[in-house]
Amino acid sequence: MYANKLPRIVGLTILGISFVISLGSEMGLLTIVEGIRRNIAILVLILLASFITIPLRLSGYLEKIVSLMTMLRSNLDRAFFCLLSILFVLAPILNVGAIRVTQDLVKDIDFKPKFLTKAYVNGYLSAIVWSPYFATVAIVLYLFEVNLNSYILIGLTFGIIQIIIGYLLFHFHRGEVSVDEVAVTVEPSEDIRNLYWVTGKLFLIILVGIGLLIFLEYITPLSMLLLVSISAVVIPLSFGVLTGQMKQTLSEMKHHISNLNRSCNEIVLFLSAGILGSALENTVFSEALDTLFLAIAQISTLLFGITVILIVIFFTVIGVHQIIIVPLLITQVNPEIIGISPLALAFVFILAWGVSVALSPISATNLLVSNMLKAKWWQVGFKWNGAYVLTSTFVGLTIFIVIQLLTI
C-alpha cells in the first residue's frame, strides 16, 4: 500500500507470474510460501540495520570528522584519501546514508562535483563488498550458504584494494579536478593527529564488532543474519546504558521505526523477486540456465565470471534492480553442477552487484550522488568512474579465479 507506483506495478507483475508458474509445479502454491520463508531473515536485517547508526550519531564522531576535513581542504590528495577512508569506515554502518552524511560534512568546502563523485563512489563501493550489514553481502552469502568467517578476509582485502585503486587513479589524474577554497563555517579546533586517531578508532571498533560476530557464528548454531539483526538492536541499547543516553537512544529507535515505511519499495521488490526465484526452481528455465552456466564454466572460469557480471550490469542498466536480478540468478545456480565453489560464486556475485551499483541509473547510490551534485547518472557511473569500475572488475575477476583454484 505504501510502495511507489512503479515498484508496486513491478512487484504485482512478478507476483502474478510467480503464481502462474507455481500452479504448474509439483509444490504448487507452497513455492510462494517457501520464497517468503527463505527471504524473511534477510528482510529483517534490511529493516533493522539502520539501528546500528544510532551510537555513531550520538557519540559525536561526526563532528570530529568535520574538523578533519576542514583541515585537509587545501590538500587534494590527502582530502581525497580522507574522503575514501571516511566512507570506508561509515558505509558499513550507515550504508548509502554514509554518502549523504559525508556530503553534509563537506558542503561548506567548495569541492568540485567530479572530485566528490569519484570519492563517493570509490569509497562506497569499497565497503559494499565486505560489510555484513549490507544487503549485498548478507543476501549472497545467505543464498550460497557461505559463512561470513570464510568470506570476510577476502571481502575486506578486496575493499582495501579498491581504496588503493581509487586513490592511485585519482593521484595520477588529479590535474583534471580542482577545488576552490571558500569561507568555511566550521573552524578546526583540534590537533589533526587526534582527529586521525578518532577516525582510526572508529574503524577499529567496527572491525572488533564484526570479529565478535564471526566468533559468535563459529561457536553458536545461530546464523550470521540472525546475529547481525540482534546486534543491530543490542548495540544501540548497550550504548544507551553505558553512556547514560538511553532516553536519546530510545527516541532515535522510535524515529527509525516510524520511518520503516520508506523501505516499502525495497521490501516489495525483494520479496517478489524471492518468490519468483523460488517458483522458477526445478523448471525448464532453471534447467536451461544451469545448462548455460555449465557450458560457460566448462569453457573458462574467467568467462563464467565475466558472463555473470555482464548479465547483472545489463539488467540493472535497463532498470531492473539488483535486489531482483541477483537473488533470481543465484537461486538458479547450482555450485555442484557448474563445478565452481560456493565461496568463489559468492564473491563474483557480490562483485557483480557492486559494479552494477556504480553503473545503474536506478541504484540508490547513483541517484543520490547525481541528485546531490547535479550531475547526469551516466557521468557519475561511466564517465567519471568508468576507469575505476573497469580496474576494480579486472582485479576482482583475478581474485575470483584465485579463490576457485584454492577451493577446488
TrEMBL record:
The chain crosses the membrane at residues 12-33, 40-58, 78-98, 119-144, 150-170, 195-216, 222-242, 263-280, 292-325, 337-364, 384-406. It comes from the Bacteria. Keywords: Membrane, Transmembrane, Transmembrane helix. This is C4-dicarboxylate ABC transporter. The lineage of its organism: Bacteria, Bacillati, Bacillota, Bacilli, Bacillales.
